[in-house]
Structure formats: structure tokens, C-alpha cells
Amino acid sequence: KRLGRYQIPSQFKKLVAADPDDPSLQQAVAEAIADAAAVPYMLERFAEVEPSFRSAAAQLEGLSNTYPHSLELRHAWARLLCNLASVSAQTQKPAEAESAARIALEVLDKLPTDYPSALAHQWLVVGAYNELAMAEQSLGRVQQAEESYHKAIAALESLSEDDARSQKGREEFGRTFMNLGFLYDHTNRPQQAQEVWRKGAAVYDQLVA
């Protein structure tokens, strides 16, 4: 059965319009929209999921523009854009993945760095830079991809020691180092690749220790 384009239920729009200044309501609606669009991703039917993500992202963008003071809507929009970038990469559409990741970073740049928490914001920044780097690499933009990987690493290094040592922190460090190593290896920089891979391997070793 094919998955149709995701449409924001009319009751969500009515709720937002009824009291646009209620932050708890905005958060509930934004999370419901993002989560409902993300459910089909679990089925790994990426070609069918992408239109749903794209439709939901467009509608969250519209609501964010209508209610520009809603941090909840903009955060949900950025989160969904990161998911869209990932799905676009899975469906071999690196240009679309790059666009979604760039927009996500633009949205995040205009949000408070501690919303909804400093850690939640930072995880999205790391994810967006990783998606952007992988898309740029697929498009042959090696220098830009390298810069994006280093921005992801810089964001990770700004985490607190406890967060950096958490399972998610180590996974993100390891993934970023491994991907950067592949970039170096594919561009005939084996020494740099080995150095970065050793860092990634050390992180993974800590994770399973």
C-alpha cells in the first residue's frame, strides 16, 4: 500500500489558530506533525516516505512563517528537515539532501542555542552538518564536505564531558570521524584517513567497553 503525502490534520491548524501564543499547545502540535510524518521512515520505504516528509516540512514552514514567534514550530521544522535530508540521501538525491540540511542549519541558527535544551539543539546541529557533509561529498564538493565534517566535530567538541561520553555522543563522534576518514581516503590522503579512523575506532572502543 502506497503512503500518501502527509497532510496536517485540520484540527491541528484549528488548535494553533485558536491560541497561537500558548507554547505548550504549539509544542504539542509541532511534535505531532513531525512524529506522524516520521513514522513511515521505520518501514525503510524511503522512496515513498520522501514525499510525506517533504509535504510535512513545507506545511511546518508555512505554520512557522504564520507564527514566527513559535520556537516549537521552528524547532520541529528543523528536526523534520534533518530527517528529510537523510531520506533524500537514501533515495540517491544528494542535491535535495544538501538543500534540506542547509535550510535546517539556517533555521537552527535563528533559534536560541538552549531551546528546547542546549543538548537537543546541539544534536540537531551535529546531525544537520553530517547530512550536509555527506551530500556535498556525493556531489563532488570535497572541500565543502570536509569543512562541514569539521563543523560537526566542533559542535561535538563543545558538548559537556558527560554528554560527549554518552552513548549518543560516542556514536556521533565515531560516525563523523569514520565518514571524514572515507573522504580523506577517497581523495588520496591515506595518512590523514588513518589518523581520523584511529580516533573513530578509539571512540567505538570506549562505547563497547
Describe the fold and architecture:
The structure is a single chain. The protein is mainly α and 209 residues long. Helix content is 78%, strand content 0%. The chain is built from 10 helices and no strands. Helix 6 packs antiparallel against helix 7 (142-157) and helix 6 runs parallel beside helix 9 (167-186). Mean pLDDT is 83; it is low at 1-6.
Helix content, binned percent: over 70%
Portion of residues in beta strands equals under 5%
The main pleated sheet reads as: none
Question: Oligomerization state of this entry?
Answer: single chain
Indicate the low-confidence ranges by residue numbers. 1-6
Radius of gyration: 18 Å
The ordered H/E elements are HHHHHHHHHH
The counted number of beta strands is: 0
Gross morphology is: globular
